[in-house]
Amino acid sequence: MPETDFADMAAALEAVRDNPAPVLVVTHEWPDGDAVGSACGLCTLLRDNGFRAEFFLAAQMPDCYRPFLPFPSAEFTAEEINTKYSLVLNADASTVKRMQLGPAEFASITIPVITFDHHPDDEMFGTLTCLDPEASSTAELIYYFAVSQGWKISPLSATFLMLGVVTDTGCFKFTNTSAKSHRAAAALLELGADHDRIINEVYLSKPLNMVRFESELFSGIQTAFDGKFAWISVPRELLDKYDVNLRNTEQLIELVRGIQGVVVAALIKPTSNPGIYRVSMRSKDPEISVGRVARGLKGGGHEMAAGCSIFAKTQAEAAEVLLRHVRKEMNHEI
Q1: What is the mean pLDDT of the chain?
Q2: For a designed S-S bond to 86, which of 21, 31, 193, 201 qualifies (C-beta 3.0 to 4.6 A apart)?
Q3: Are 57 and 30 in contact (CB under 8 A)?
Q4: Closest Cα partner for 224 from 280, 262, 268, 278?
């Protein structure tokens, strides 16, 4: 059940329904399918149900999600947010550090900040938080909230919410898939969600340069612990060689996870800051928590899917740091 009852969230939103200042919808940095789907879904739901709403979406999203964006996004200073908007509605960002406000600092926001989220490590940093860690996605949680309020759900809103559900369940392959997830997906299809478009844009439209990049990248896969841990380090040189933007490497982790015998999969990527490497991790065993590994490295996420940043001189050193932490988890030393 949500940490904050739907009634509390409904009351907070109803309080600004007639406010001429719109709601500002935001999500987290490096947005994935659920971030895009839940944020855009919320914005369209609000607009379709009598609210004024705008949104800010980080520019680093993978190209496969860009065709779904229905309206432009702009950046705002904290002063502009405080004077122009009635409240900030955060979708899917579990921590202050991850929430994307452009150039604005969270500490400078004086208007209410309310959150819909499904991450178990949510910091509950806003004025109000609706948290359901058992939901497959924030989009699923928002769907059930909209239903509880009797809101109109247009085909566009349904498509956004379906995008979040489909991508965060890995097309219903991941362990977070539940009967509620399937019921939400079925209802969204009946409401006009464009499932075919989601599958084609996200999973069946890979550019040729990306295919060639992947074929060379995966020749460098590394394993440890009798093949139970596998990881790929993404070299900057290879990205440049095939003209691949880091934002389009989100799904590479699933190729590593799909290897037979692998229990923990990881992807180590460079960032724009020398000495900082971004790590994505997945687990196929509920007893092996990559969430604990990530939290041990000042990151976060779910127990089966998490991420962090590692400070190291080289990518090889970053891999060594990660290897030590994964070993502790696999040996149940954490």
Answers
A1: 93
A2: 21
A3: no
A4: 262
Which structural domains are found in the chain, ordered by start? 6-203 (3.90.1640.10), 210-330 (3.10.310.30)
pTM of the model: 0.90
Q: Decide: 230 and 217 in contact? Cβ < 8 Å.
A: no
Q: Which residue has the tokens 């006009």?
A: 192
Which two structure tokens, joined as six digits, stand for 272? Answer: 């724009």
**Amino acid identity at 75:** E
Give the list of residues 6+ apart from residue 8 with CB closer than 8 angstroms, or none. Answer: 128, 130
Categorize the per-residue pLDDT at 121 as very low, low, confident or very high, splitting at 50, 70 and 90.
confident
Which of 334, 252, 255 is CA-nearest to residue 290? Answer: 334
Q: Is the pLDDT of residue 58 over 80?
A: no
Separation of CA 256 from chain center: 19
Pairing of strands 113-117, 87-91: parallel
Encode burial over 52-69: b for 16+ CB neighbours within 10 A, e otherwise.
bbbbbbbeebbebbeebe
Residue 225 CA to residue 237 CA, distance in Å, equals: 28
- pLDDT above 70 (res 76): yes
| Beta-carbon contacts of residue 314 (< 8 Å; ≥ 6 apart) | none
**Please, what is the angle between helix 138-148 and helix 155-168, to 10°?**
140
Residues 6+ apart with CB under 8 A from 326: 224, 225, 229, 264, 266, 293
H/E stretch holding 294 reads helix 290-296
Mean pLDDT of 191-211: 96
Is the pLDDT confidence value at 332 over 70?
no
Residue that has been written with the tokens 């612990």 in this structure: 225
